[in-house]
Design a protein that fits this description.
This protein has 186 residues and is mostly beta strands. The protein is built from no helices and 14 strands. It has two domains: 79 residues, no CATH class; 84 residues, Sandwich (Immunoglobulin-like), CATH 2.60.40. Helix content is 0%, strand content 46%. The strands form four sheets. Strands 1-2-3-4 form a four-stranded antiparallel β-sheet, with no helix packed on it.
Length: 186
Amino acid sequence: MSFSKSGNILSASSWGEFSHSTEDLYIFKTFAGGTPIYKLNTPGSLFYCNTSDDGRTVIAGGKGVHARQFGMGGLLYNIEVDTSDNPVSVNNISSDIKGFELFQNYPNPFNPFTKIVYNLNSNIQSNVKLSVFDILGNEVVTLVNEKQSAGRHEAELDGSRLASGIYFYKLTAGNFSDTRKLILLK
């Protein structure tokens, strides 16, 4: 078992079943509940996994044959993880986004940088605004205030000029609006 440095991504390997009826590797977002975001069933057994500090890469290794069989061979997997969605090495992220979506920032808590990812659908006709507010509701930073094309977008917040504490970020695009909480720890 291995965690990212922030603890947001967990990977766990298993020897698996002799019949290969269960997965040998699971990847979880710890803040999203108990459902894995990715599972891998190999023709052998995985006995090692490591998650990068930022949670975007998981390395898993094992034997190409089950431990109860004789033979040679090895397995090595390098899985790129989109920490805001699904593993990118498994899914193609399409620019044909069906709706608007604002994801939780990563890392959270952060110091001093964090990333905010959001999806825009093709029906957008107005400006997109992404702003950060303090606990009293005062706008402290505007990250985006422009027309943007449909698809996946990312903004980075530099909190080096902000005080430690709880903040909120809000995405407004046409009739869509969503707000999430972030924490700056210095």
